[in-house]
Amino acid sequence: MFKLNKLKKLTKKPKRIGRGGSRGGTSGRGHKGQRARTSGNVRRGFEGGQMVLSRRLPRRGFNNVNFQVETGIVSLKTLESVFDDGAQVTIEALIEKGIIKSNVECVKILGGHALEKRLVVIAHAFSEGAQNAITKVGGKAQVIEG
Asked: Which of 75, 89, 99, 105 lies deepest, with the highest CB count within 10 Å?
């Protein structure tokens, strides 16, 4: 007959190590010391208070972050869609239209698209294809020095 006091448990109790038996005593943690304690695990790289190896070694190498130039890249396809025929494309106009960010120090125009509008483009650099496409239609590609 079915009795509530005769039911088997569905969950198993976790093994309590360090309470006698085969894994009693030190329970595989050795004798005393920080790692033998209950909350004795320390963070990665901790050397018992000694200066960590990563901080003892000298810093070497070069980081370009102080010297890098923020370059804005604009395609002819973008210029075609945003500007009207005969417009003058300057850096201020590109920032105003939201094509490049205001922190950009250098602007380069890239080709890869046939231009149909006659534009006067003033930028720091042009790809060969972009320069050819602009002059082919009758526009101007002016390079800003510096």
From this structure: 89
Instruction: Report pLDDT digits (tens) over 43-60.
Output: 888 898 999 999 999 989
| Residue 128 tokens, joined | 């060969």
What pLDDT, on the 0 to 100 scale, is given for residue 30? 84
Topology of domain 69-143 in CATH is Ribosomal Protein L15; Chain: K; domain 2 (3.100.10)
